[in-house]
Write a structure and sequence with these properties.
Strand content: 15-25%
Radius of gyration: 20 Å
Structural class: alpha+beta
Helix content: 55-70%
Order of helices and strands: EEEEHHHHH
Distance between the termini: 53 Å
Number of helices: 5
Amino acid sequence: MKLAILPRTITGKVENLQSVRFSNLDIKIISEVKYRGEGVEGNKKMNIGLILLYFIIGGIVVSATVVIGSEGKGLLAAFIAFFPSITVVTFLMIYLESGLSATLSYVKGLILLTPVWILYLLVFFILMPKIGIYRAMMLGVALYIFSSLIIMRLVEQDIGLLL
C-alpha cells in the first residue's frame, strides 16, 4: 500500500518527494512544496519540518501548562503558557519564509489584538463562577472574535491604528 501526503489546498510543482518504508507500508512524504496562489508573490517554499517543529513545541507548551495548572499552580502554568517559545518560533518561521516586512506585520497584529485577548480573559474570569465554564468560554471567545473582526476591519480601512 502506498500513501502520498499531499495538501489539497496547495497546487503546483511538488519538490523533494521522499519515500519511507515501514514494514509493508510505503509512505511518500513531501518535505517542501512550491506553490503559487492569491496573495503570494512568486514561488515560495513551505518547510514541513519547521511546521512539525512548531506543532511539537506547541504541544509541549500546552501539555506542560495543563499538567502544572491541574496541580493548582496557576501562576507557574501561566508563566509556561506565556513563555515566548511559540512567538519565537513563529517570528523565525515568518521571517525565514517572507522576511522583515511580514514579520513586523505579524508583530503589529499581535500588539493590536492583545487588548482583545485580555478582554476575553476578563470576561471568562468574571463570568465563569456565575454561569459556568462552557458558557463563559463561549461568550469570551465570541467576544474575542467579534472584537477582533472590528479591529481588523478598522485596520483594513486604514484609520491610523497601524503602529
